[in-house]
Amino acid sequence: MLAGMVDLNTTSVEKMRSGMEAGLGAFPLPDDVSAQVESGWPVPVEWISTPDCDDSRVLLYLHGGGYAVGSINTHRELVSRLARACGCRALLIDYRLGPEHRFPAAVDDALACYSQLLDQAIAPGHIAIAGDSAGGGLTLATLLAAREAGLPMPAAAVGLSAWTDLSVSGDSITSRQEADPMLTGDQLRQFATWYLGEDGDPRDPLASPLFASLEGLPPLLLQVGSEEVLLDDTLRLADNARAAGVEVCVEQWDEMFHVWQALAAMLDEGQKAIDRIGEFLREKMG
Fold first, then answer.
1. Domain for residue 8, yes or no?
2. Domain-embedded: residue 156
3. DSSP for 110-150?
4. E strands within the chain?
5. What is the spatial distance between Cα 258 and Cα 29, in angstroms, rounded to a whole number?
6. Coil, helix or strand for 68?
7. What's the rounded Cα separation, in Å, for the pair 238 and 5?
8. Is the pLDDT of residue 279 over 80?
9. Residue range 159-186: average pLDDT?
């Protein structure tokens, strides 16, 4: 959800989707990156790989977009950079979106894809899950759903400007409002309504992992910009995770905005943040 690429002032989900497709979807892939569609999955998926990637290790990536916009196409270039930095294949999925598909459709789809990776005999210690914005919240929700299903945890997880609180209650929603050019509290509430419906519970732990019991989760890397309205979504989640005994690394990037990593093609800080994710996941995935 980036200014100039997505019109967040519209209340039309169709216009938001087309704007994001035209903006982020326009970033080309390098010639040495392979993007391979594969059938037989619960939802559309695409494998992203680079020439030197280790096929035995997989990054499951969950795109952002407020649970209502975004796609494989909008996030392919970002995920190609992550795959290169991590030295592994990436599985980018098109989970179902609201308002057509309400909560917990996105969680069900992400969990089903994680389960299928395990069914393919990929060791859980060779899998990581990552996502940006809503995809960051969905990453945490997927871990929680996997834990409740009795599935083994992946090696690690990464949240990029993760949206962890659909009740939109963090202090930074107002304190960073003038500094964040990307999002407002009203926009977040609109996304939450599209995903949850008018009567949905924004404090449901699988919608808002901030309110979940986080015991047993794998090591987490959480990146967030100092200027974004979702700053407190990361900081509060990290505090809760540490209290639950989870290994957490929080990186607060000065003067950065919401999901700045998606502009790595134009922004040095974006690529530096991606390189840091690569270092973290290479260590955790072995």
1. no
2. yes
3. HHHHHHHHHHTT--GGGEEEEEETHHHHHHHHHHHHHHHTT
4. 34-38, 45-49, 54-62, 88-93, 127-132, 156-160, 220-225, 248-253
5. 22
6. coil
7. 30
8. yes
9. 92
Q: CATH no. for residue 111?
A: 3.40.50.1820
Count of domains for the chain: 1
pTM summary value: 0.96
Give the position of tokens 């409740």: 148
Residues labelled catalytic? 133, 228, 258
Between CA 16 and CA 21 the distance in angstroms is 9
pLDDT digits (tens, 9 = 90+) for 43-66: 999 999 999 999 999 999 999 999
Residue pointed to by tokens 């090696």: 155
Token pair in block for residue 236: 């509060």
1-10, 73-82, 245-254, range with the lowest pLDDT: 1-10
Contacting residues for 278 by C-beta, under 8 A, at least 6 apart: 82, 84, 85, 86, 87
Residue 4 lies in a domain: no
For residue 125, what are the domain limits?
A: 13-285
Considering the domain boundaries, does residue 2 fall inside one? Answer: no
